[in-house]
Amino acid sequence: MALTSSRVRAVNAVFETGSFAAAARRLGVSQPAVAQLVRDLEAEFAVALFDRHGQTLIATPLCRRLYAATSRMQAIEADALAILQQRDELTGGELRIGLGNAMPGMALIAAFRNLYPKIQINIEIGSWSAIMAAVVDQRVDVAVLPEVPQDNRFRREPCVQQRVVAICHPVHELSRESRVSIAGLVQYPLVFRTRDSATQRAVDRALRAVNLRATPAIIVNTREGMLEAVANRLGVGFVWEHGSSRIDRIAKVAIAEIETESPEYIFSLAGKRGKLVELFYLARSLSRSAEGAAMLAAP
Q1: pTM
Q2: Which family is this protein grouped under (predicted)?
Q3: Using a CB cutoff of 8 Å and minimum separation of 24, what contacts does 218-225 make?
C-alpha cells in the first residue's frame, strides 16, 4: 500500500483549503489531479477522508488524525529538502560527537556522512557519565546516550528503543536460552560495569526488584572491556541490546526482569543550535526508516 508524498500533500492541501480547486491552486497542479490522488488513497485503504457537502469538503475524524501525523512529516520533509539543497555549501567544518555505545550512534554518523562527506567527524566514546560531562563541558557538540534526564539544559530526541540484555560466549550453556531470569544469572560468574554506567544501573535495578545481590567476578570500565571479557569466557556480562554491531564470540540473551525498552537519545545543550548540530538531528530523522528517503524522492 502506497502512502506517497504526493498523496499526502494532496490530502493535506484539501484539508487546509476545503476544496479540490483551492488545493490545486496551492499545489500548482490541476483540480482533477488532486481529486484523483485523494480518491486513490481512499480506495487503496478503503477509507473515507472527506464528506462532500456541495463544493465544500469536510474532513472526517480519520482524516483529522491523519493530518495531525502527516503535517509533522511534511514539516520534516520541507526542512530536509531545504538543507539538502544547501549541501554543496557544506565543504568543510567539524562536528564533535559523543557516544556511550558504538550503536546506534555509528549508524547515525554513517547516515550523516553519506549526506555530508566533507564534514570532519571527531568521536569521543566513554561511559554514560563521561559523555554527559562532555556535553555539559562542550567538549562535544552533540551526543547519543540512554537515560538522558528531562532537563531544561538539554535538547533531546529519541532515536531508538532498546533494553539491556545478558551476553555470553556462544559455547556457554546460556546461549541456548532465549530468556533468563536474574536469579538464573547470579549462578554464573558475572562481569559488571562500573557504577557510572547506564548499563550497570539497569542491571542493579533489576537485582533490587527481586531482592537479590550479586558479587561480580570482574568489573570493567568500558563497553569494549565488557565485550572482550565475555568473548574470552571470563563470565556473563550485560550490554544494551543494539549497543554494538559486534557478533563474533558473543551471544545475547533476554533478561526476564528487563522486558521494558528504554529510549536512546540524540541530545545536546539546549542552546547549541549550529548548522552542523541541526544537520545531525536531521540525519537522524531521515535514517529512521527507508520510507523517509522514499518520500523525499516521490513526485
Answers
A1: 0.60
A2: Belongs to the LysR transcriptional regulatory family.
A3: 218/189, 218/190, 218/191, 218/192, 219/191, 219/192, 219/193, 219/194, 220/191, 220/192, 220/193, 220/194, 221/127, 221/193, 221/194, 222/126, 222/127, 223/100, 223/101, 223/102, 223/193, 223/199
